[in-house]
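Structure first, sequence second, as always.
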């Protein structure tokens, strides 16, 4: 069953087009990834889906309900987890959830049950009666998610939920998405982290400059990425090789050198690896580690746009 359908979604701010002609659908129990660098138009797309912004033009339907024609009913099916946590710091987590649950028409035992359940899902049961002001950034983000799902929405949209969080909270957040999917909830998971999207998502849309530049299952997209493997080489001392030295090795397609490391793209890792190793040793650049990485969504983004998803 189709949970969300968006068609021809566009939005400009003044003369700047933030989103142009975006179309996709999300099925029941599907985790759908929206991957793109900063400024790609991800948050604007989510605001259009949640009815916070009006598409100009474009249409959004949630379980067949048109956001323009029946906004109240359509919004009732949604849970929104915004990029910046929207929590009351002077209240406890439980009080926050009570407040937001009541806003969504939950009362009495139903509300208490829902609160206990989402606290468990995000791993905050033990800390539920502490003031949120004392929480770490990662815990506040987990509470932010709990608030977004307390009314059991059919579709949850999450905007970069793991940016700047500690590894433990990150793990909790990724596991929360899996639990939601297993319960039959659909999730739109927005991120610029390739590893998260590859771990969580069934299908992925890749966005750049307001447009979808690729859409498909992870397997489809990886096959589009081509045959390139990446050799990630950690160097043992200060002297760096010339990228040209690496590029001159037969079979090397791209080479990037940075402080302490070199990256080589090749379609024949086994043949190229010993040659790269020898060239580095001859250049007085001892190698401390080499990893061979399979093609990933980052490789595809690089191939489609000629640039990296992240600056670092
Ligand atoms: N309220 C706004 N007013 C003007 N420009 C905006 C506004 N919101 C977003 N933009 C612009 O739209 C583009 C897409 O932004 P955004 O959707 O936030 O991207 P992302 O979430 O992928 O980082 C950017 O160029 C951004 O500067
Ligand atoms: Mg954003």
């Amino acid at each position: 069953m189709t949970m969300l359908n968006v068609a021809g979604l566009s939005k400009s701010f003044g003369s700047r087009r933030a989103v142009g002609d975006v179309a996709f659908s999300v099925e029941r129990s599907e985790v759908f990834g929206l991957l793109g660098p900063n400024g790609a138009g991800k948050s604007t797309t989510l605001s259009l889906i949640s009815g916070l912004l009006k598409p100009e033009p474009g249409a959004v339907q949630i379980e067949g309900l048109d956001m323009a024609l029946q906004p109240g009913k359509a919004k009732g099916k949604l849970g929104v987890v915004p990029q910046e946590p929207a929590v009351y710091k002077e209240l406890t987590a439980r009080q926050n959830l009570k407040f937001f649950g009541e806003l969504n028409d939950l009362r009495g035992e139903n509300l208490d049950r829902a609160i206990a359940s989402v606290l468990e899902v995000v791993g905050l049961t033990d800390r539920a009666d502490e003031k949120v002001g004392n929480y770490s950034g990662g815990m506040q983000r987990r509470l932010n998610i709990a608030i977004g799902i307390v009314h059991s929405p059919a579709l949850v949209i999450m905007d970069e939920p793991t940016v700047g969080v500690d590894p433990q909270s990150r793990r909790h957040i990724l596991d929360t998405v899996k639990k939601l999917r297993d319960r039959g909830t659909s999730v739109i998971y927005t991120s610029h982290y390739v590893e998260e999207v590859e771990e969580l998502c069934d299908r992925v849309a890749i966005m750049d400059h307001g447009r979808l530049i690729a859409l498909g299952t992870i397997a489809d997209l990886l096959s589009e990425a081509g045959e390139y493997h990446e050799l990630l080489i950690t160097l043992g001392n200060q002297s760096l090789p010339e990228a040209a030295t690496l590029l001159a090795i037969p079979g090397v397609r791209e080479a990037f050198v940075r402080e302490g490391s070199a990256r080589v793209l090749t379609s024949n890792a086994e043949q190229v690896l010993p040659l790269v190793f020898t060239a580095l040793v001859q250049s007085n650049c001892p190698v401390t580690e080499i990893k061979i990485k399979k093609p990933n969504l980052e490789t595809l983004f690089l191939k489609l746009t000629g640039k990296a998803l992240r600056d670092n």
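Margin note: The mean pLDDT is 92.
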